[in-house]
């Protein structure tokens, strides 16, 4: 499949490299235009890599994160746009403190939606990707990312909505990306158990409460992209202040991942075209622009 446009909407720089990165690298490599929209600048991200926690980095964090993002986009072969909102940070404590004034999650939905609609009408994606209603991770910016993406998917094609934000464009489908799957973790664990080797992700495995269930039951679409797992990991490592290269993200060898679970998972949230589930391609049912109904 080539000649399509795919837009992934993410809350912070580095989210694009940990959620659906190999899928984007594959579609870009096969001749499609892929655009990552990053809603915030990630201003409140802590330095999570001990090797980067050195003088001179924290002082120019905004600039550093822009450089990291540009390198990750280059590795994935995608375009990238900043939407310019300010990271809300992850509130911690009991009770939770209020979000900092001016942060993304507090911006009125109309305002953030209009900003995203503008980019949708410029780029004219056939397919959008975002997070599910829980944000995939309980960060206020991730939940807001879901809300803004769904609102933009609805509004972009309607001429009476945001008339100053460009010519209407109707997006055909929108997906949620699902990364943390119980089934995937279990298969990896079985592999280590069979070899009698300690499972490097035991900590994640133990933290999983059965009542959380498995998001696998919501997955409609699996994209073969094992060939691009190394791009995904390189892009993630490009976010050097945020990602510890010795962290658990890289604990399972690539060849084992490629053999046991060579796909990334999505849930078709809304569609305006006919398709049948399960799918193995995000563009199933969509005609490229040059195949009009003439
Ligand atoms: Zn994030």
TrEMBL record:
Gene3D superfamilies: LmbE-like (3.40.50.10320)
This protein's record includes keyword Metal-binding: yes
Disordered, as annotated region: 1-20
Annotated binding of Zn(2+), by residue: 12, 15, 142
One Pfam family recorded for the sequence: PIG-L
Enzyme class: hydrolase
Superkingdom to which the source organism belongs: Bacteria
EC code: 3.5.1.115
Enzymatic reactions: mycothiol S-conjugate + H2O = an N-acetyl-L-cysteine-S-conjugate + 1D-myo-inositol 2-amino-2-deoxy-alpha-D-glucopyranoside
Assigned keywords, A-Z: Hydrolase, Metal-binding, Zinc
Free-text cofactor note: Binds 1 zinc ion per subunit.
Cofactor: Zn(2+)
One example of a Gene Ontology biological process annotation: mycothiol metabolic process
Entry's Gene Ontology molecular function annotations: hydrolase activity, acting on carbon-nitrogen (but not peptide) bonds, in linear amides; zinc ion binding
Function summary: A mycothiol (MSH, N-acetylcysteinyl-glucosaminyl-inositol) S-conjugate amidase, it recycles conjugated MSH to the N-acetyl cysteine conjugate (AcCys S-conjugate, a mercapturic acid) and the MSH precursor. Involved in MSH-dependent detoxification of a number of alkylating agents and antibiotics.
Assembly and binders: Monomer.
Membership in a protein family: Belongs to the MshB deacetylase family. Mca subfamily.
Protein name, UniProt field: Mycothiol S-conjugate amidase
Organism of provenance: Antrihabitans stalactiti
Higher taxonomy: Bacteria, Bacillati, Actinomycetota, Actinomycetes, Mycobacteriales
């Amino acid at each position: 499949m080539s000649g399509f446009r795919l837009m992934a909407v993410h809350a912070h720089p580095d989210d694009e490299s940990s959620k659906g990165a190999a899928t984007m690298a594959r579609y870009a490599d096969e001749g499609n235009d892929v655009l990552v929209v990053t809603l915030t600048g990630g201003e409140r991200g802590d330095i999570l890599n001990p090797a980067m926690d050195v003088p001179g980095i924290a002082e120019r964090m905004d600039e550093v994160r822009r450089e990291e993002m540009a390198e990750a986009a280059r590795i994935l072969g995608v375009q990238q746009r900043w939407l310019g909102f300010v990271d809300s940070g992850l509130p911690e404590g009991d009770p939770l403190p209020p979000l900092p004034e001016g942060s993304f999650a507090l911006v009125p939905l109309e305002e953030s939606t209009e900003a995203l609609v503008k980019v949708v009408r410029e780029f004219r994606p056939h397919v959008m990707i975002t997070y599910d209603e829980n944000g995939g991770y309980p960060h206020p910016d991730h939940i807001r990312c879901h809300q803004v993406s769904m609102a933009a998917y609805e509004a972009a094609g309607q001429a009476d909505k945001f008339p100053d934000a460009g010519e209407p464009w109707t997006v055909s489908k929108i997906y949620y990306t699902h990364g943390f799957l119980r089934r995937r973790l279990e298969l990896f664990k079985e592999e280590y158990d069979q070899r009698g080797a300690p499972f490097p992700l035991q900590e994640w495995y133990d933290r999983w409460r059965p009542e959380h269930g498995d998001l696998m039951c919501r997955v409609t679409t699996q994209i073969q992209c094992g060939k691009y797992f190394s791009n995904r990991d390189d892009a993630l490592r490009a976010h050097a202040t945020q990602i510890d290269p010795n962290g658990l993200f890289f604990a399972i060898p690539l060849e084992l991942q490629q053999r046991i679970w060579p796909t990334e998972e999505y849930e078709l949230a809304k569609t305006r075209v006919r398709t049948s589930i399960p799918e193995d391609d995000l563009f199933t049912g969509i005609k490229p622009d040059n195949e009009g109904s003439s």
